[in-house]
Write a structure and sequence with these properties.
heterodimer, A: 252 residues, six-stranded mixed beta sheet, 10 strands, B: 332 residues, mainly alpha, ABC transporter involved in vitamin B12 uptake, BtuC, binds adenosine-5'-triphosphate, binds magnesium ion
Chain lengths: 252, 332
């Protein structure tokens, strides 16, 4: 496998009594799409917040392109090429779609005109080209998710962290988004996506990491994960893998 | 910065420059000077509050700093008035940067930030009312010296030019901020700080910078005040009255817009005069009226008087246009 763009080493995060992320170690290969899955409350978003500088871990460290970035502020990490989207969309509500995207584009383009031009281009890429003048607050769920993606893309990231950008979309909207995400990867951006939509995970991801109750319980290519009994139990409860196998056996 | 963006600004300034040619009464000119003074204070507040979304209740801290530095440097250290004026602005900017750094680095937001700015202003007011260098309870009187070198004039007209020039500069500053990356990032921080940070915006730096510019503009108004009235005391310099007018003008005129503070200052001061006409000098009546207007604006015209004009203009121009045209057409 190619070299690792990011390495998470023994990272833990505690909220009061709750250990949201528990001694997690994993890494992301350059140029790949990695999926991070797991049941609700598994600690996926918390892990994103740590590697993007929004939360400081209680233990462990995060390496990015070989350097230790643990505890660095989020804006500095963004300038180093780490972009994230938010699970609960965070638009600049009162600004236009165009302006929303331009904020990110400004990172490498000080001039207004250049940032706006780049923003229009990115908008086209994610299918927002016709909605440039719309107020961000007035977008649909799918529009809001596209805007999250567009803004993150506008900073021309090296590593793109997508937190459930497909959640709340209908099947046809999901079908539209899959090639968009693949195209971003094809342009050389490393992607890590938290995703509950298994169809997307199966068709996009090179590697899947499974978190449950803060711990990493499985990792590997998508197909190996789908049949992993620990993963099935994490989602469906203890003994579920056995019961499923029994049901499957009875019917077959 | 294109000429198209500066043209409306130029027109407004030219129109205001014609005022002394038309208005000759001292009372009217005095009124216009007061309007422009509040427009300047309001523009200062607007840079931080309007574009940056950080509502300060203590802009008198900067106004008072400007006023006292101008006065004290002249009276106690014999510094030239023009130089004192410039140093007053610079000191105001420094005080803004310091208060901004302390507040924003410790993560103060919303009403906490508002209360802390109010506290800073009150501390300065109390200090100024007891320290000998400010003249304590008596205040500081600038010696009458009616020479342009001393920044004092026989007539009110030169003062009018000076305050108009300061307002013009503040309008240009606001316009330049609007048309720059700094302004875009500042507005982004106002709209959603987390999202801005995720996109590489150093939110704290944006807010501290905005507060520094904001304080410099407001301090300039304080310097002018000292020079115009030749008297400063702690209540005038650091009292809540100026903090209130600083936020009233932009909120009533149109928050986060270039002309909002000017428009709002005009409305506020006209209402104040009207109140005096109706009820004489009943103490606190102007504040009651301001409060009512503020409630009306916040409830019915959140984009201020300017926003109402704007909507009216859109309404009229739509009524004149035969068919509605889409805002923007893109091919393909
Ligand atoms: N700021 C916080 N303060 C306290 N507890 C938190 C905080 N953020 C998350 N948690 C808790 O930490 C745990 C992990 O949350 P996290 O949002 O990381 O889960 P997730 O895997 O992203 O779940 P989902 O699939 O529902 O998005 C949850 O129990 C959550 O309630
Ligand atoms: Mg989550």
């Amino acid at each position: 496998m190619a070299d690792k763009i990011m390495r998470v080493e023994h990272v833990s995060k505690r909220f009061d009594g709750l250990l949201a992320v528990d001694d997690v170690s994993l890494d992301f290969a350059s140029g790949s799409i990695t999926a991070l899955i797991g049941p609700n409350g598994a600690g996926k978003t918390t892990l994103f917040a740590i590697v993007s500088g929004f939360l400081r871990p209680n233990g462990g460290r995060v390496l990015y392109r070989g350097g230790d970035i643990t505890g660095q502020p989020s804006h500095r990490l963004a300038r180093m090429g780490i972009a994230r989207t938010f699970q609960i969309v965070q638009p600049f509500a009162d600004l236009s779609v165009h302006e929303n995207i331009a904020i990110g584009a400004h990172l490498s383009r000080p001039a207004r005109a250049a940032a706006l031009a780049a923003a229009a281009e990115v908008a086209g890429l994610v299918g927002l080209g016709d909605l440039l003048e719309r107020r961000a607050a007035s977008l649909t769920v799918s529009g809001g998710k596209r805007l999250e993606l567009a803004r993150a893309l506008a900073i021309t990231p090296t590593l793109l962290l997508l937190d459930e950008v497909l959640a709340g979309l209908n099947p046809s909207e999901i079908r539209d988004m899959l090639p968009v995400i693949r195209a971003i990867r094809d342009r050389g951006v490393t992607i890590v996506m938290i995703e509950h939509v298994m169809q997307a995970v199966m068709s996009l991801a090179d590697t899947v990491h499974v978190l449950a109750e803060g711990r990493l319980i499985a990792e590997g290519p998508p197909l190996s994960i789908a049949g992993n009994s620990r993963v099935i139990e994490a989602y469906l409860g203890r003994g579920a893998a056995g019961r499923l196998a029994a049901v499957g056996g009875g019917n077959g | 910065m294109t000429a198209r963006l500066l043209l409306p600004l130029l027109l407004v300034v030219v129109a205001l420059a014609l005022v002394p040619a038309v208005v000759t009464s001292n009372v009217a000119l005095n009124f216009m000077v007061t309007v422009l003074l509040i427009a300047l204070v309001g523009q200062g507040w607007n840079v931080l509050g309007g574009y940056g979304g950080q509502y300060s209740f203590g802009h008198s801290a900067f106004f008072g700093t400007g006023a006292y530095v101008t006065a004290i440097l002249q009276v106690r250290y014999g510094v030239n008035a023009w130089l004192g004026f410039a140093l007053g602005i610079a000191t105001g900017a420094l005080v803004g940067a310091a208060i901004g750094a302390v507040s924003f680095r410790s993560g103060l937001r919303g009403s906490y930030f508002a209360l802390v700015t109010l506290a800073f202003a009150e501390v300065l007011r109390i200090l100024a009312s007891v320290t000998p260098i400010t003249g304590a309870g008596v205040g500081t009187l600038i010696k009458l010296d009616l020479r342009p070198e001393a920044l004092q004039f026989q007539s009110r007209v030169p003062f009018y030019w000076i305050i108009l020039a300061l307002v013009a500069i503040s309008l240009i500053v606001a316009r330049v901020i609007e048309a720059s990356r700094f302004g875009a990032w500042l507005v982004a921080v106002r709209e959603n700080e987390s999202a801005a940070r995720a996109l590489g915006v150093n939110a704290t730096l944006m807010k501290v910078s905005a507060m520094t510019i904001s304080a410099a503009i407001t301090a300039a108004a304080g310097c002018f005040y000292a020079q115009y009235f030749l008297f400063v005391d702690s209540g005038i310099a650091f009292g809540p009255w100026i903090s209130v007018e600083a936020l009233l003008a932009p909120i009533i005129g149109g928050i986060g817009t270039v002309f909002g503070p000017l428009l709002g200052a005009l409305v506020v001061k006209m209402l104040g005069e009207l109140a005096k006409l109706v009820a004489g000098d009943a103490p606190g009546l102007d504040l009651v009226i301001y409060g009512c207007v503020l409630i009306l604006v916040v409830a019915f015209a959140p984009r201020g008087v300017g926003g109402v004009f704007h909507e009216f203009y859109n309404f009229v121009s739509r009524a004149w246009t035969p068919a509605p045209t889409p805002m923007r057409r893109r091919d393909g």
